[in-house]
Amino acid sequence: MLSTFRPALLSSLAALALVGLGLAAPTSAAATSKTTFVAPNGSDRAAGTISAPLQTVQEAVKRLHGGGTVDVRGGRYYQKVDLTGATGVTIEAYRHEHVILDGSRFKPADGRSAMVNIAGSSHVTLSGLEITDYRSSELDAMPIGIYVHGADDHIRISGNHVHDLGNDNQTLGSFDINAHGIAVYGDNASHSISDLTISKNTVDHLSLGASESVVVNGNVDGWSISGNDIHDNNNIGIDAIGYEPTLSGKYRYTDLNRARNGVISDNTVSYIRSQGNPAYYEDGVWCNCADGIYVDGATHIAIRNNVVTGNDIGIEVAAENARGSADHVDVRSNTINNSLYVGIATGGYCDGASDCGDVKTGQSHDNQFVGNTLRNNNKLNDGSPEVLIQFYAYDNVFENNTITATNDAGALLGTVERADADKVSGHNVSDKNTFAVSGTSDVSFGWLGKTYSSFKAYQKATGQDLHSTLSGVKTGS
Fold it and tell me: Would you say the pTM of this structure is higher than 0.90?
């Protein structure tokens, strides 16, 4: 199954990624010839020329009836921008001048609200803007820097800096605290968000509660998140989501409600940690559970050439909804190091047993983890492994990875108790990997609920990694 999907998927997604990195032009782009200028000292009664600029970006957009470009001169603007129904509109910093959209004078409304709102739009580009200080402490508010939703296509979000915004509510253990840096919600069942590129943005120092720095959620089909620098946020760095109530009713558990056919490539994702995030405080402790890159119920995604460092979890492929799965995800050629907990995780994190309470999560299947480099993950040194395979995981492949454990347990590949009893897990393959330990003579490998303290015992019992190598331990291990 994997061998049939992968080449066609990766070739088509590679073309999309080139567009996202500015190496190819989008097709059927709307013609744009008119340019309107905005400056802090302008007037909305002016002509909108470079010598007589407007004062607000919104007035400039209004004047571009047939599409065009808004060139924004450097300065601080206490303004929101609404691009509902826009076609062929580009908003950009004029000649790379420093343009700041400052949200400090706004009170975010209940629900999702944004400094830049893009809805029902086509051929829209947002480039070179700094967006900051849009904050709330209200549980019902969800502040967002850039928000794309509805029926949209050919959307480019490139070279922006979204930082220091979010939800500052301090209710411990509340998942009602939410905010986003850049959020894309495909909430229209009849029209997916398509040909979306999020590239070369910096997204940092966000207060996110239970939400994500950069997210594609629901009916988003054909997208690229590439070349971004995402760091120092208190929850997930990049997330592709399915099965949430973005689409509801008869569409909730269909492929329409899954982010799909996407590329996450060449990003740097660092220091994404939930320590101190009130949403992740339970029973007197903080959860170290923020992923650098997370696939939660999405499908047909290529995750490649990312540098993922210093996060709680490096890359995770799973499904939080018990009726969902994360599948046909190709995690390839990424560098993952210095995670507090684990480098790579896949599968459900609870098997529905009594000690899980009411929590039960979905499946992970038909995914590939190939050619990744992992080292010095599990900085907590609690014995957790570089790679963790949890519940409901099947038909996944782990090959040609270079994995070095530095914790005291020498934990390279890990499992969870009862993983062999969930009646789903199995038929995973691990082989042709290069394993090593550093700073310890111990080693451990886990597979389907059992842990082995020597490489040979693991190979013999499981039949896995027969063509893999292990170095750094004494002879006989």
Answer: yes
